[in-house]
TrEMBL record:
Residues 150-187 are annotated as: LID. It is an enzyme of class 2 (transferase). Its EC number is 2.7.4.10. It catalyses: a ribonucleoside 5'-triphosphate + AMP = a ribonucleoside 5'-diphosphate + ADP. Consists of three domains, a large central CORE domain and two small peripheral domains, NMPbind and LID, which undergo movements during catalysis. The LID domain closes over the site of phosphoryl transfer upon GTP binding. Assembling and dissambling the active center during each catalytic cycle provides an effective means to prevent GTP hydrolysis. This is GTP:AMP phosphotransferase, mitochondrial. Keywords: GTP-binding, Kinase, Mitochondrion, Nucleotide-binding, Transferase. Gene3D superfamilies: P-loop containing nucleotide triphosphate hydrolases. Involved in maintaining the homeostasis of cellular nucleotides by catalyzing the interconversion of nucleoside phosphates. Has GTP:AMP phosphotransferase and ITP:AMP phosphotransferase activities. GTP binds at G19, V20, G21, K22, G23, T24, R151, V160, Y161, S224. It comes from Stereocaulon virgatum.
Length: 240
């Protein structure tokens, strides 16, 4: 696959129902556009906890108590990462009345994963860094359910297989280690439908927020292979 270069920074969020293939599309986008980086709020949180940073210890106390990590704490983690990469001015803070202008250099391009999930979180993120494209990935429910039923994972590495279109070389075994594959705990239909209901409740106002800002783009397809070329074309039009 030929790679393409951005002419300006792409600050991206992918939104879609559980199982729609956000991870697959993010990987393909980063291969196609090497200037894109993944910025995962979950990874930043886990790293902070593991490294016992002050913010990580504060977050861990919330997690141990069974409560959600506050939005401002997640934003501080994201801001710290953006500053470390020099993608926003070092003086940027959460208390700024208006967002500091982020770097428009193509190398300051990222896909933000895991945050925001609600319109309230999105408004808080707006005050930190302006997102310039939100992609709503849409795949029919029956297709996603079939995909989930056929999905197997190698838990230690995170490698994902699908007996419908991405089979392991040996049935039930990881291609690299030969270790057994397992099902995700949340891959049952009942669990997925509960997650879908929650996603729909929060995503509608989230998408409306970004639609009002003029940065929302919807793409539909029955498979990741159908969606990817449309995504590539849109990214090339907007950023290349």
């Amino acid at each position: 696959m030929a790679t393409k270069e951005f002419k300006r920074a792409a600050r991206i969020i992918l939104v879609g129902a559980p199982g729609v293939g956000k991870g697959t599309q993010a990987e393909r986008l980063m291969k196609r556009f090497p200037q894109l980086s993944a910025l995962s709020s979950g990874d930043l949180l886990r790293n902070a906890v593991r490294q016992r940073t002050p913010l990580g210890q504060e977050a861990e106390s919330h997690m141990k108590a069974g409560s959600l990590v506050p939005d401002d704490m997640i934003l501080r983690l994201i801001l710290g990462e953006l500053k470390a990469k020099s993608w926003v001015p070092p003086t940027t803070s959460l208390s700024d009345a208006a967002p500091s202008l982020p770097s428009d250099a193509p190398s300051a391009s990222f896909i933000l994963d895991g945050f925001p999930r609600t319109s309230i979180q999105a408004k808080k993120l707006d005050s930190l860094v302006p997102i310039n494209l939100v992609v709503s990935l849409i795949t029919p429910v029956n297709i996603i359910l079939g995909r989930i039923a056929n999905r197997w994972v190698h838990a230690p590495s995170g490698r994902v297989y699908n007996t419908g279109f991405n089979k392991p070389k040996v049935e039930g075994k990881d291609d690299v280690t030969g270790e057994p594959l397992t099902k995700r705990e949340d891959d049952g239909e009942e669990t997925w439908r509960a997650r879908l209901k929650k996603f729909e409740e929060t995503s509608e106002p989230l998408l409306e927020h970004y639609d009002r800002k003029g940065v929302l783009w919807r793409v539909e397809g029955k498979s990741s292979d159908e969606i990817s070329p449309k995504l590539f074309g849109e990214f090339e039009t907007r950023f290349c």
